[in-house]
Design a protein that fits this description.
Layout: E1 3-8, E2 13-17, H1 20-43, H2 49-69
Antiparallel strand pairs: 1-2
Helix pairs in contact: 1-2
Length: about 70
């Protein structure tokens, strides 16, 4: 279950509480988004800088979530 603990509108920061299972589902979803973006890059050669930047962002998000999960 996901629960909002606090919100800082000025800095645009949310503090959430969630179960490990919910976090695992989010990590799996980000992994699926990475796979989709990688396929899009391969299908659209030469690659678009926007697609590459979005893929890099997803990979960074996955790594941050993975560190939290551990």
């Amino acid at each position: 279950m996901l629960k909002k603990l606090s919100r800082d509108k000025m800095n645009r920061i949310l503090t959430l509480q969630m179960s490990e299972e919910d976090l695992k589902k989010i990590i799996d979803s980000v992994d699926n988004m990475i796979s989709k973006e990688q396929r899009a890059l391969l299908e659209n050669l030469p690659s678009d800088d926007n697609l590459r930047a979005r893929l890099d962002g997803y990979k960074a998000l996955k790594e941050e979530l993975r560190k939290i999960f551990e």
